[in-house]
Task: inverse folding
């Protein structure tokens, strides 16, 4: 049988974890659902800037011009998606010319 100090330590630790998790639950603006998020908005924006710079360096020379029809098609899709996403802000997008892979991603920030 555990001793009183061990039980007390387990209760304090469990309470601390519960409090930490509970204080990091937030409501998602677009969907109204709740999620766990322990990353600050500032740190998320910093990660987004670093990821953006990395992608731009990695695919330099493969990014399509805004005049390219594929770039314009992505723009038309975004104009329909963004108003219904619940995400606000100015969005910048680039299309990478990679014929063997069709994919999309979004970076925070």
Result:
């Amino acid at each position: 049988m555990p001793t009183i100090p061990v039980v007390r330590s387990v209760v304090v630790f469990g309470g601390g974890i519960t409090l930490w998790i509970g204080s990091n639950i937030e409501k998602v603006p677009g969907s109204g659902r709740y999620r766990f998020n322990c990353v600050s908005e500032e740190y998320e924006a910093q990660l987004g800037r670093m990821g953006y710079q990395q992608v731009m360096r990695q695919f330099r020379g493969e990014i399509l011009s805004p005049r390219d029809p594929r770039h314009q098609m992505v723009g038309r899709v975004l104009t329909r998606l963004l108003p219904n996403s619940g995400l606000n802000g100015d969005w910048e997008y680039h299309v990478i010319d990679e014929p063997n892979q069709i994919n999309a991603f979004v970076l925070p920030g």
Observations:
- The beta strands are 25-27, 34-36.
